[in-house]
Amino acid sequence: QDHYDYGMRAVIAVLRAAGNLKRKFADEAEDVLMLRALTDVNLPKFLDQDVPLFRGILSDLFPGVKLPEIDYDNLNDALTNATARAKLQPLPNFFEKIIQLYEMIIVRHGLMLVGESYGMKSSCISVLADALGELNEKGLNGEQKVKYYCLNPKSITMGQLYGAEDPVSKEWADGILAVTFRNAARDTSPDRKWVVFDGPVDAIWIENMNTVLDD
Predict the structure, then answer these.
(1) Which helix (H) or strand (E) holds 186?
(2) Nearest 5°: phi and psi at 149?
(3) How far apart are CA 107 and CA 100, in angstroms?
(4) Quick count: other Cβ atoms within 10 Å of Cβ 145?
(5) How much is the pTM?
(6) Mean pLDDT in each 10-residue stretch from start to end of the chain (215 residues)?
(7) Which among 39, 104, 100 is positioned nearest to 65, based on CA atoms?
């Protein structure tokens, strides 16, 4: 698949996830933590038919290692409440994708939700944000509220999105993304800040976004 990535960026994400788990569960066996990190980082991006193959490879690499279940009871309760508030159906596969999104957010500063139209992508983001806000209000799981800034990158030009130089005066004007990013960076609250590009993927804006995320 085109979106499968096994480069150095993927390796760094696995190491970062393993480091987070080691700090959180210092007494746990390292092979269990490594298996958990590999699963958390890679499983969400696989298509259904590739999941058994991935699990088979992991069972060869880590024979006999069993992963303990992660306690997501508080998050699941908050997701159920958030789903009801949004008047959506609490489907198991919907919750599974939200939890995978949550696990990816912990280890990556930039990620994509890819899928067909009406595939619950936008709802995953809004319901997760609402649920994390509820956990914060209840003082559970050490979570923070979410401030998210949503825009459609295809509704404006590249110059309006990223910024452009005036052809006459040669003066630089910041784009919507630069202003949004700066506002989020200036916010000193502990809240999570998400900048969401909700729209069709286009070769031009996504290549520029790749450069931004690398920098």
Answers:
(1) helix 176-186
(2) -110, 115
(3) 11
(4) 16
(5) 0.77
(6) 66 83 82 85 80 86 80 88 92 89 82 86 92 90 88 88 87 89 89 89 81 69
(7) 39
